[in-house]
Amino acid sequence: MTATLLCCLLLSAPASDANRPNILLIVSDDHGYADVGFQGCQDIPTPHLDRLAREGMHCTSGYVSHPFCSPTRAGLMTGRYQQRFGHENNPFYDPADHQEGLPLSEKLLPEFLGQAGYKTGWIGKWHLGAAPEFRPENRGFAETFGFIGGGHKYIDWQENIKNEYTVPIERNGKVVEVTEHLTTALGHEAAAFVQRHKGEPWFLYLAFNAPHTPHEPTAERLARFSSIENLNRRKYAAQVSLMDDAIGEALEALRASGQEENTLVFFFSDNGGPITVNGSSNDPLRGAKGDVYEGGVRVPFVVKWPAKLPGGGTYDLPVSSLDVFATSLGVAGATMPTDRKYDSVNLIPYLSGAEKRTPHDQLFWRTTRKIWAVRAGDSKLIRLGGNADELYDLRSDIGEKANLQATHPQDASRLGTTLDAWDKELVAPAFPGAGGRQKPKKAKAN
Questions:
Q1: Which pLDDT does position 263 carry in this prediction?
Q2: Catalytic residue among 48, 127, 212, 360
Q3: Are 30 and 23 in contact (CB under 8 A)?
Q4: Which residues contact 375 (CB under 8 A, 6 or more apart)?
Q5: Confidence of residue 13 (pLDDT cuts 50, 70, 90)
Q6: Euclidean distance between CA atoms 210 and 227, whole angstroms
Q7: CA distances (Å), 117 to each of 15, 21, 179, in order?
Q8: Confidence category of residue 438, pLDDT binned at 50, 70, 90
Q9: What percentage of the chain has pLDDT greater than the value 70?
Q10: What is the residue extent of each domain of the chain?
Q11: Best CATH choice for the domain 20-352 from the list 3.40.50.1390, 3.90.1070.10, 3.40.720.10, 3.40.50.720
Q12: The model scores a pTM over 0.85
C-alpha cells in the first residue's frame, strides 16, 4: 500500500470511539425562565444546574422552536421547524390513533446516531405519539424508560392504560413498578445508563416531566420551602428542587465514571413557564407558555463540553433547541443529511469562539393559535392574529414593553416580509391534536 493511499484512508476513516463524545440531552418541562440560580433565582436553590452553567456555556439568548410541549420536542428530534412536517399541535393520547404523532416521514436524531455507532437511550417523557409506530423504541432509541404521553403523576398512581397521566412506566417495552418519586426514579435511571455504557459512545435523551403539573413533591422536599407563602409556588419549588437533584445524580455519574471531560451536555426547558398554572416565573420576560413573546420561547439554556468548549462563559447570540441535531451529528462524525431543508446549526464553532458570526440570521415561531414571531438580530416582530404587527428591540427592551412599530415602520415591514416568506415554506398541521379533538356529543334526554 502506498503512503499516499494510506494517508487518504486515514483521513476518511471515522473518528475512533475514544475521540467521539457522549451526548447528554436534558430537557425540563414548563420550567420558568427565572427559576434557576444561574438566572438569578433567589427562592429555589438549583446547585447542580448552577454548577453545570458555571462549568459550561450559559447561552443567554437560548430559544426553543415552539411555545409548548410536543412541537418543541418534534423540532428537537428532527432539526427542522416542526411546521415543515405538520407537527404543530400536542398529539392526543390514543395508542390506537395512527395519525396523532410525529410523522413517519421524518428520521429522528437517535436513528442517525445509532447508525453512527452510538448507544441511544430515552428516559422520561415522550409526547410524540402513542401508537406503536410512534414510540421511542421504533424511532431510534435502543434503550427506553418512561411514559409515552404528555404528562404523568409523580407518586401514588393507580395504573390505567387509558389515562395518559397514570399509564404504566415501561423499561424497554415492559411494565416496571416505580415506588419512589418519579423524578427521582428518572435520575436513578439516567445515572445507571451513564455508568452502564462507559467505554462506548452514547446519546441519552433525559426528558423530565418536572416541574409540569400535577405538583406532587415529597413531603420532605415541600417542607424545605415552607418560607414560600404561595402554596402553588411552594409546590413548584419543591418539584424543581427534586429535578435538580436528579440531574445532579446523572452529572455525578459522569464525573465518577471518568466520562465528564468528553461528554457534551445540553440543558434547557421545552418552553417558558405557564406562570398562572404552575407558579413559575419568567421575569423579566413578557408572556408565558403558549405565547411567542419572549416568556413563551426563551428558556434557561446551557451547553457544556469540557474537552472542547471553554467553561464559565456566556454566549449572547441567539441559539435554538433545533441546534442539538446538527451539533450532535457534527461531534459524532456523522454526515448532516441533505435530503430536505434543515434549520439546525452546529454550535461548536460558535461556542468555542472559532466562528464569530451569528448562528442564526433569523429565528421563527408559529402556532395554530394564529400567532407568529421572527427575531433577526436584536429586532423582533410579533404578529397576533389580525392585529397590527408589533416590533421590539430586545437589546434595550428584553421585556417587550415598548412597541416600535409606529416609529420604525420600515424595519417592521422588512421583518414582516421575512416572516411571510418563511410561513409560505410550511405545511398545514398533520393532525388536530388534543385541542382539536372533537368531544363526543351527549345524548339528549327523552
A1: 98
A2: 127
A3: no
A4: 63, 318, 362, 363, 394
A5: very low
A6: 21
A7: 11, 12, 34
A8: low
A9: 93
A10: 20-352, 363-423
A11: 3.40.720.10
A12: yes
User: What are the cell numbers at 360?
Assistant: 442564526
151-164 b/e (C-beta count within 10 Å ≥ 16 → b): bbbbbebeeeeeeb
**Which residues on neighbouring strands pair with residue 22, listed in sequence order?**
263
How far is 247 from 437, CA to CA, in rounded Å? 35
Task: Output the pLDDT for position 123.
Answer: 98
**Which distant-in-sequence residues (6+ apart) come within 8 Å of 248 by Cβ?**
47, 48, 187
Pick from 287, 362, 381: nearest CA to 34: 287
Indicate if 69 belongs to the active site. Answer: yes
301-304/313-315 β-pairing: unpaired
Which one is catalytic: 31, 58, 66, 69? Answer: 69
Which grid coordinates belong to 127? 409526547
- 6: confidence class by pLDDT, cuts 50, 70, 90: very low
Helix, strand or coil for residue 124?
strand
| 76 pLDDT above the threshold of 70 | yes
Residue 446 has pLDDT above 60, yes or no: no
- Mean of the per-residue pLDDT values of the chain: 94
Q: Is there a catalytic annotation at residue 41?
A: no
Amino acid letter, 319: V
- As a CATH number, domain 363-423 is 3.30.1120.10
On whether the CB atoms of residues 271 and 64 are closer than 8 A, the answer is yes
